[in-house]
Specification:
Helix content is 65%, strand content 0%. The protein is mostly helical and 403 residues long.
């Protein structure tokens, strides 16, 4: 993106290119949590090793399930070893292991080879870490949904995370405090880019407008609140001014071409003169009035069935320029996960039971899978015709599998 930004002409970009790049929210969350997991690695190592020990063979899995039945604990969840590249797999591993804490305790008394049983302090740390990661897990699921969550959902969720991290830093538990400090440091790297642009996008949701921005920034900045709110507000007005200037330029060009056509067809048409009169009158009106009028109106009630785009479509005559901004901003997807999943094969190769595959092994499987598909499709003899199967191909041929 940096190279692309250098190649493009800044004058042709909105706000001189300040809105060129929107980062993927799910990727940012992953980077933030991974930073925290590095800190707590030693604190949860015995829980991870315990899970690994009891899923290492089918015999141990049977013994584990038998112990769970004796303790009247339902085995609806399977123990899963976490994958280093997926932070939420660590959360799911801890959550499941905590449900079976009594089973681990019972087995530690009977199996002399089981030497990685967590201490009570380590169980307590795992429980607290799991509680903290629950917020990130919930928001990651929302950001990674297949319904393409857009910019209106971004601002409030990111602000919630920032407020929670700042609260965790003050925790009496040194493990949680250290984890939160590391995560907050990574979070601040992306915060300035996120909160201004997404704050502006939030303003164009009639249920929030400036009220949501004021609500969250007051909790985050304290004494600097007014300055930060004004910063977002100015960004919004600058964006509106730029859209207005482009609309006016387009309108003048259209009026000029229209007047030439009309003059050639109907001489002395009074309505064409009226159009020019209206255009010249509109040019003297304060361009901020449309945005100010929108912001001065009260916010609408927050209802689950409310459709922001339908509201803007209904109010296009009242707010023509704002409608164009809303059309562009509210359509920004906050995550690339949904689109990337259509082109990613890792989810169908790395399952919960194969999460410890070495990268070299994984690469070999992907190559072998492609070769086998090419052989089935009769394309092994031509390099140019080599292609991977699509998701639809796999669904249509469920009996074809790779060993």
């Amino acid at each position: 993106m940096r190279l692309l930004d250098e190649k493009l002409c800044k004058r042709d970009l909105l706000l001189m290119g300040r809105m060129l790049h929107v980062r993927c929210a799910a990727h940012i969350l992953n980077l933030i949590v991974q930073e925290g997991l590095k800190v707590i690695e030693d604190g949860i190592s015995n829980v991870r090793n315990s899970v690994l020990y009891w899923i290492a063979s089918s015999g141990r899995i049977e013994r584990f399930e038998e112990a769970a039945r004796l303790l009247h604990i339902s085995c609806t969840k399977k123990l899963e070893y976490d994958c280093p590249t997926r932070w939420n797999s660590t959360y799911l591993m801890l959550r499941t292991a905590l449900d079976y804490k009594e089973v681990f305790t019972k087995l530690s008394l009977n199996d002399t080879n089981y030497r990685c049983f967590p201490t009570e302090g380590q169980w307590s740390a795992a429980h607290e870490v799991c509680e903290k990661l629950q917020l990130f897990h919930r928001i990651t699921e929302q950001f990674s949904g297949s319904q393409y969550p857009t910019s209106t959902q971004y601002f409030s969720k990111v602000c919630d995370i920032k407020l929670e991290l700042e609260a965790w830093v003050k925790s009496l538990n040194p493990l949680i405090s250290s984890m939160a400090s590391s995560m907050l440091l990574k979070f601040k790297k992306y915060w300035d880019d996120m909160h201004i642009l997404m704050g502006v996008a939030t303003i164009f949701d009639p249920r929030f407008k400036m009220k949501l921005v004021e609500f969250y920034l007051a909790q985050i900045y304290g004494e600097e609140t007014l300055h930060k709110i004004q910063e977002v507000r100015n960004h919004c007005f600058n964006l509106f001014q730029e859209y207005t200037s482009r609309v006016v330029a387009s309108h003048e060009s259209f009026q000029a071409s229209s007047s030439n056509e009309v003059a050639g067809v109907v001489e002395g048409d009074r309505l064409s003169s009226f159009d020019r009169f209206v255009a010249s009158s509109s040019a003297n009106v304060d361009p901020r009035s449309e945005l100010e009028s929108y912001l001065e109106e009260g916010v609408l009630s927050r209802t689950p069935s409310f459709d922001s785009l339908s509201w803007w479509k209904t109010n296009i005559l009242k707010f023509p320029t704002l409608q164009k901004i809303a059309r562009d901003l509210l359509a920004i997807p906050i995550s690339t996960v949904a689109s990337e999943s259509a082109f990613s094969t890792s989810g169908r190769l790395i399952s919960p039971h194969r999460s410890r595959l070495h990268p070299t092994t994984l690469e070999a499987l992907m190559y072998a899978r492609t070769w086998l598909w090419n052989e089935i499709n009769g394309s092994c003899s031509s390099i140019d015709r080599v292609s991977c199967p699509t998701i639809l191909d796999e669904e249509e041929d469920p009996d074809v599998s790779v060993a």
